[in-house]
Amino acid sequence: MAPDDCTRDGRSATVARSNRPFAHRCARMIRTQSDYTTMKITRIYSGPDGHSHFADVEIEYTSSAPIGRLSDWQPVTGLAFRETAADYDYDWHVAPRRQYIVMLDGHIEVETSDGAKREFKGGDVLLVEDTTGRGHRTRELSGKPRRSLFIALD
């Protein structure tokens, strides 16, 4: 039987037509995983002007397998589970350390000291690095308790 050509990440693999289960898995992986080459997250950082700012960051996927796409491993120093009250409204503050915040649920507004505001919901990831300067403020918009993960980087 003539082989099928299965391409992933610019590489080509030959799959015999008689090996249909593998060929279908390969085609499915190409179709679903090639649509996303990065994961978009939001960074909050302190600029040289002493103000906090937003930046959009793309985390590149560097490997692919039937279980999904993966980025490079990131070194972390700790993990905390957090729940805030439904009326959470925290005035100006800096991040206590460089950390990722993974929103599990809820709906917040974050304002940086340069005056920009953005909203975040469950599934969003923030890289918080404004450990100096005026910082940012955060308030809950949903009126419900919010759960998140804090992943410390230093």
- CATH classification, class level of the largest domain: Mainly Beta
Q: Strand portion, in percent?
A: over 45%
What's the shape? Answer: globular
CATH topology of the largest domain: Jelly Rolls
In N-to-C order, the SSE pattern is EEHEEEEEEEEEEE
What features would you describe in this structure?
With 154 residues, the protein is mainly beta. It has two domains: 3-33, no CATH class; 38-152, Jelly Rolls (Sandwich). It is 9% helix and 55% strand. It has one helix spanning 20-33; strands at residues 3-8, 11-16, 38-46, 52-65, 68-71, 78-84, 89-93, 99-103, 107-112, 117-121, 125-129, 136-140, 146-152. The strands form three sheets. It has a seven-stranded mixed β-sheet with strand order 5-4-3-11-8-13-6, with no helix packed on it. A hairpin with a 4-residue loop joins β9 and β10 (117-121). The longest helix is centred in the first third of the chain and has 14 residues, at 20-33. It is globular, with a radius of gyration of 21 Å. The model is unreliable at 1-33 (pLDDT under 50).
